[in-house]
Amino acid sequence: MDILVCVKQVPGSSNVKVDEKTGLLVRPKKGNKLNPYDLFAIEAALELREQYGGTVRILTMGPPQAAEALEECLWMGCDEGFLITDRAFGGADVLATSYTISQGIRKAGPVDLIICGKQTTDGDTAQVGAETAEHLGIPHLSNVTRILSVEDGSVVVEANQENMIVKEKIQMPCLICTDSEVNTPRLPSYRRKKAMDDSLIHSFTLNDFEDKDNTHYGLKGSPTQVQKVFPPEKSTSRVMVEGSSEELAEKLGKLLSERKFI
Amino acid sequence: MMFNKLTKEDFKALESMLPGRVLDGKSINEDYYHDELGTAFGVPEALVKVLSTEEVSAVMKFAFDRNIPVVVRGSGTGLVGGAVAINGGIMLDTSIMKKVLELDENNLTVTVQSGLLLMELAAYCDEHGYQYCPDPGEKSATIGGNISTNAGGMRAMKYGVTRDAVRAITAVLPTGEIMQFGSKVVKNSSGYDLKDLIIGSEGTLAVVTEATLKIIPKPEYAISILVPFKSMKDAISTVPKIIRAQVTPVATEYMSQYVILFAEEYLGKKFPTHASDAYLLLTFDGNTREAVMHDMETIADLCLENDAIDVFMIDTDERSASVWSARGAFLEAIKSSTDQMDECDVVVPRSRVADFILYTHQVAKEVGLRIPSFGHAGDGNLHIYLCRDGLEDKEWEKRKHNAFKLMYDRAKEIGGLVSGEHGIGLDKRPYLLNMLGERQLELMRGIKNVFDPKGILNPGKVI
Fold this sequence. Notes:
The complex is a heterodimer of chains A (about 260) and B (about 475). Chain A has about 260 residues and is an alpha/beta fold.
């Protein structure tokens, strides 16, 4: 079975601060790291490979240094990596990002199963996985907690849907997003790091894609325009609401509406 | 030693000193009858909760005048029966006395009350960009408790133990006199160092109420490696080579798959690898990524040259938590695997750690006890646990004593000592005498007598 895992390089510390005056992110000294949620996806993929054979490839989109994230995946045991990098992709919102990734996946070649993490620690949207699948026209499921089996060209999984656990059999090729804390990710191997073969990481630019229309990528392809980034106001006042999930949703909706947040 | 029992008048007097903070009889929670390991048992007549040095002074003066024994207690996380009121009397609880009094960034010290928890101190320092170097595994211990046993922890190899980090203490003598020992100075050649004498005296010489502690700017980078070896012998035999490599790891811990499996069950969480039966866990820190990576790679290469199966890198907070949370849970995990246990916190020269661990396997077979262990391979301090596993009282006592005797005798032969960091308390007294001999104990008793002529402070402990 050939698996592709989508990963992202994120700031090394999850406590990223925003400069109140400039609105710019204050980069922590810790550098960058692999998005912690992606580690569960990688582990799930490597466990599937152990059980069913095949390959685990990884794909990321980002500046040239995002190759570091791919290297780390190779040290964890993945087979090959793809870096999607081009100035034309800068400033992409969720829509443009997922479209770019879908183009990268097409370029990377046939795949049975695509696995993404739940979300990233910097963007936190949890939308890129599902949107990528939509661009590719394949079925998808989020919050997967267990991969039960692979049979008859389908993958059987359990997913946490807030108030119920669903069991789904999904025809491959398909895309799943793992929930967090679903396994204990293995650690990167120093032995593999030392034996690292740089030719296992390939770069794609806009010119490599099927769709070369630059208005579909980056800022130009993003309907979301960020006007300002600012730290949230801190307030310690709180309102306690009690009830069932449905009642809570209704009360919360009413409250947000009253306060003109929605 | 004959002490007075507390009378109604005594309770009244204590109550007037500490209104609402004096407990007696059944109002004292049974947790105060024992420590974490629960090998020693004693019921205090009064439990008093103090808030300041002055209050401690008032209680001590009262106890001294009335000839009533006093046992000081922090979080009660001790493992040798040190903070147990075996003679009744007053238990002086410092756990609500936990203010940070001063952060002195010019002298790089932080002054705290003795009831502050180690985890609270670490968080405070971290928040201000500093590090308090000692890192004992039990983070809910008080700093006063750490001082009383001279706790070591996992960074001892590079940064030393509690004694190395204490610049000054405020302590109350049994008479109630308040004393300052040491100061913020970095050097000190001014007579006998009474501060260092009180550190590690397990509440038998004076009551430590405040401490001025050395801090350092927090190292910017840290990376750990987890190194699986084919056998414990291979793992531990590599440690002397690491020590000789002219790179000083912050920590060098050893752990077996056997103990890791207990931690997995206890935490309900898988360890990131099951590659082998024996592991070394090392941490490196520094102020530049390049320097830290260089140190890490030097030792990683050395481990691979010495037949390590692999070297796994732990370079993010999440990875660190997945490994160090298991390491931090070993004691509790082993405890939950049996009905009762006792421990041996022996310390041996670092070159003999491998021999000693293998010897514990031999002892386990010889006396018929399960004896898991883990510990600080880098500083020679081992934590060896004797598990009762349902044995009858008599048999348990017999086998336990045999095992302790064999292990402490072997430690003595190879230049080791009874305790690396948990102290002597009540439980390890016979072994201390055997190890150090009568003359050394006599000198210690002489010191005790100078500080505490009536012997009211933690009687029956250490010496």
